[in-house]
Specification:
The complex is a heterodimer. By secondary structure, chain A is α/β, with parallel strands linked by helices. In chain A, about 35% of the residues lie in helices and about 15% in strands. In chain A, the strands form four sheets. Chain A has an eight-stranded parallel barrel with strand order 1-2-5-6-9-10-11-15, surrounded by five helices. In chain A, strands 4-3-13 form a three-stranded antiparallel β-sheet. In chain A, helix 9 crosses helix 11. Chain B has one domain: Luciferase-like domain (TIM Barrel). In chain B, the strands form four sheets. In chain B, strands 3-4-5-6-11-12-13-15 form an eight-stranded parallel beta barrel, surrounded by eight helices. In chain B, strand 11, helix 6 and strand 12 form a beta-alpha-beta unit. In chain B, helix 3 crosses helix 5. The chains are: A alpha/beta, B alpha/beta.
Chain lengths: ~450, ~375
């Protein structure tokens, strides 16, 4: 039996608040002005992308007790900019990262339900968690949440939000001007949700939206995060973009679905991926090298070393060898407000690996950082990149990719102009939108509202 | 009334809520009750208000389902953001509830609304004592007294403004020589530590185009009046007749101390038709459908746009910056405002016939308010 040819899904990540984004490029524009967001979203829509994606951070990052100043700093409010983008696009999905720790279900549910109405069914929610007291200092709740409870709260938060989304039936508003009947269901919006994290009840005030619920994304990579995704998410924003790691992740997560009576098509695996295009593969490789140098300035290289070493290395020479002292083990106190430091689970072992690599390849500190923090997935001519993406998708390393350009706002233009047509020629990417909602783009079913289900007769 | 030789500018706003402020408004022939949760409904209404050259619209919101009339709504901040790219001049003031929400989130949301509207954002800050709203959040009951609720809102607005100021206007430097994107000396912790919450800052969003978007509030009693005087740029008062206008304005200004004066708008609910008889008949018909005579906190006017123009000029002369009109039904009464009242006032030489083409076309400029200095920037 021949395996059916899969359709590739493509999304665009607005360049983020990290060193992947090259603000020193002459083409780099504002990261705040709406015109940048509009250009980016309209380019993605011109390319018939499934959706665009916004990340979020609720406190400015710090290093050595000072606001981190080497990367792009600052971003708009996620909901507000997505609602405005709904006015300048027609089909593109609008995915926002919204924290489940420093928000409340009623408010987030009304915001997503509103965004889904305002966009005609294009809203998606990347559910993330955090526990750090550092971010909590900006909120009423403060840093109250023990780390081991963050997924538990996220699961509760999502379940509470679903209770709210499902509290209205589709046809609840009849608004019969003759009879004066406004609601067909006098209990529309009634809800009650109680568990260890939340105790809420009342009436939700936003009628059921075009998608029923927003599309749910999950981004965590831990065992608990994967299980959460298998149980409750529609798509995963993963970081495994290579063939082997992607296939292993894909098989693992899709394999968990059956336990929840779900099918492989119910959960899409969409890794983040950077790209560099050139007329030829050689030219692309040259450009990619320049991009890496711009992404890792000498100052940035020192900051990356400090994140692993967990100590002040401001006097270290970025063009010399790696530090000879060992990292400080324990809570990372040098870099705050960034997720990446949590990847270093054994800093001393990682430092030893880096030293071995630097010695073997004769690398300076900066060159080493360029090598080990490399995030360049697709480098090549448009044909090479199109074939690579398609190969990875057909080999079940992913269902598509969330592309992360390094220049705002025009970093997606070349991909849309040159790579998308090649994927369309191969018959693996849509040449126009077939549906109007994001669920339709992603091939996801529209969930039924609990209130739509006939109630069992009372005995 | 004159200010030197220049007439005091007259400002007009419309308060949008559902299908209008009358509970039976949704049953009118031109009402669109099934479209309340569609974007086109709001784009149409606010574009119409812009055709009448109104200063701004407010969009009502609450954290509870409406008890009668239309039921169901969308988040007002997001409605405003959705409409912003489709309009060019009109100010957008969604309402937001301070009592259960996070000032950090609202600050960046309104800053972002200011970006997506090129400087036309504001927010009407409300409090709520509703036990329903408290149960929806499930964290704590609302503060018991009106004074406590407005004290919390006062802290809340202080945090909004500090966060808007927490980036100096020229904080982004993109200095390739040192590799620095920002000059972090121009970003500031706000270190707010109050009875209700603490907020560290700075904002994640740079200072918005207007510096500080406008903060508005409704006068619903003594405590709200102090809140308006201390915290707001715009106050909505509800005098029941002309005689109460001057006294209420003076009372708010007296509480203001030496702070910059607040722009006071009088709220008025309007039924407008070609003849006063028709307006009165429509009002009776709507009351009959609702089964109860409609009253609210604001005075009610029924009549022709020209008669309303007389009242507007009269109340303006008594000391308000303008009126915020609450259309009894939508779109009917809004169309009467944009097509009848506004042109009439323009003919009388007291209201604009087009928006200013001045370089700074933001809402503060429309209202004659200066761009505020940043409290954290060196003078």
């Amino acid at each position: 039996m021949t395996k059916p040819i899969k359709q590739v899904h493509l999304a665009a990540h607005f360049p983020g608040v990290n060193n992947t984004t090259v603000w020193s490029d002459p083409e780099s524009g504002s990261h705040i002005d709406f015109s940048s967001f509009a250009h980016f979203a309209q380019t993605a829509e011109r390319g018939k992308f499934d959706f665009m994606f916004l990340a979020e951070g609720l406190r400015l990052r710090e290093q050595n007790g000072e606001i981190y100043d080497l990367d792009v700093v600052g971003r708009p409010d996620t909901f507000t900019v997505l609602a405005a983008l709904a006015a300048v696009t027609d089909r593109l999905g609008l995915t926002g990262t919204i924290n489940s720790t420093f928000n409340e279900p009623y408010e987030v549910a009304r915001q997503f339900a509103s965004l889904d109405h305002l966009s005609g069914g294009r809203a998606a929610w990347n559910v993330v968690t955090s526990w750090d007291a550092f971010t909590g200092q900006n909120f009423r709740r403060g840093g109250f949440l023990p780390e081991d409870q963050r997924y538990s709260r996220a699961e509760s938060f999502l379940a509470a939000a679903h209770t709210l989304f499902d509290s209205w039936t589709d046809g609840a508003i009849v608004a019969d001007k003759q009879s004066g009947e406004f609601l067909s269901d006098p209990q529309a919006g009634e809800f009650s949700y109680t568990d260890e994290h939340f105790d809420i009840s009342g009436r939700f005030d936003v009628p059921r939206s075009p998608q029923g619920r927003p599309v749910i994304f999950q981004a965590g990579d831990s065992d608990r995060g994967r299980e959460f995704a298998a149980a409750a998410a529609d798509a995963i924003f993963s970081r495994h973009g290579t063939l082997e790691a992607g296939q292993a992740f894909y098989a693992d997560v899709k394999g968990r679905l059956a336990a929840y009576q779900r099918h492989p098509g119910d959960l899409l695996i969409l890794p983040a991926a950077t790209f560099v295009l050139g007329d030829t593969d050689t030219e692309a490789a040259d450009i990619a090298h320049e991009v890496r140098l711009a992404q890792v300035s000498p100052q940035t290289a020192i900051k990356f070393l400090e994140q692993l070493w967990n100590r002040d290395l401001s006097d270290h020479d970025p063009d010399g060898p790696l530090p000879t002292v060992d990292p400080v083990v324990g809570e990372n106190t040098i870099a705050r407000g960034r997720a990446s430091v949590r990847m270093y689970r054994d800093p001393i072992a990682t430092a030893d690996e880096w030293r071995a690599k630097a010695a073997a390849e004769n690398l300076t500190s900066r060159e080493l950082i360029i090598e080990v923090t490399g995030r360049q997935n697709f480098v090549g001519s448009p044909t090479t990149v199109a074939e690579t993406i398609n190969r990875l998708v057909q080999a079940d390393a992913s269902d598509g990719f969330i592309l992360v350009p390094h220049v705002t706002p025009g970093g997606l233009d070349g991909f849309v102009d040159k790579v998308v047509p090649l994927l369309q020629d191969r018959g693996v990417f849509r040449s126009d939108y077939a549906g109007s909602t994001l669920r339709e783009h992603l091939g996801l079913a529209r969930p039924r509202a609990a209130r739509d289900t006939p109630k069992p007769a009372r005995v | 009334m004159t200010n030197g030789d220049l007439p005091v500018p007259l400002h007009l706003a419309a308060a949008l809520d559902g299908t209008g402020w009358h509970p039976a408004s949704w049953r009118e022939p031109d009402a669109r009750p099934r479209e309340l949760v569609t974007p086109d409904y709001w784009v149409d209404l606010i574009s119409e208000a812009e055709r009448g050259h109104l200063d701004f619209v407010t969009i009502q919101d609450a954290l509870t389902l409406q008890p009668d009339g239309v039921q169901g709504r969308m988040d007002a901040v997001l409605i405003a953001a959705r409409v912003a790219p489709r309009t060019r001049h009109i100010g957008l003031l969604p309402s937001a509830v301070a009592t259960h929400t996070e000032p950090f989130h609202l600050s960046k949301a309104i800053a972002t609304l200011d970006y997506v509207s090129s400087g036309r954002a504001g927010v009407q800050v409300a409090v709520t004592a509703s036990p329903d709203a408290a149960r929806h959040f499930g964290r704590r009951p609302a503060p018991e007294s009106a004074q406590a609720r407005y004290d919390e809102a006062t802290d809340y607005v202080e945090v909004l403004r500090r966060l808007w100021d927490s980036w100096e206007d020229d904080a982004e430097i993109r200095d390739s020589a040192t590799g620095r994107f920002i000059d972090r000396k121009k970003l500031h912790y706000i270190d707010f530590d109050g009875k209700w919450f603490s907020v560290k800052g700075p904002s994640i969003t740079p200072r918005p185009p207007q510096g500080q978007p406008l903060v508005a509030a409704l006068d619903d009693g003594e405590d709200s009046r102090r809140f308006i005087a201390r915290s707001a740029d715009i106050g909505f008062i509800t005098p029941s007749n002309r005689g109460e206008v001057a006294g209420t304005v003076a009372a708010v200004h007296a509480l203001r101390g030496d702070a910059p004066p607040v722009k006071i708008f009088a709220d008025l609910l309007v039924f407008l038709d070609d003849t006063a008889e028709r307006a009165a008949a429509r009002r009776r018909r709507l009351d009959d459908q609702a089964g109860v005579e409609f009253t609210g906190d604001a005075a009610v006017f029924g009549g022709t746009p020209a008669q309303l123009a007389d009242l507007v000029q009269d109340w303006h002369a008594a000391g308000v910056a303008g009126l915020r009109l609450r259309p009894a039904t939508l779109p009917h009464d809004l169309l009467q405002i944009t097509g009848g009242l506004a042109p009439e006032l323009h003919r009388r030489g007291v209201f604009r016939g087009s928006y200013s083409t001045a370089e700074r076309g933001d809402l503060r400029a429309t209202l004659g308010l200066p761009r505020p200095a940043n409290r954290y920037a060196p003078a």
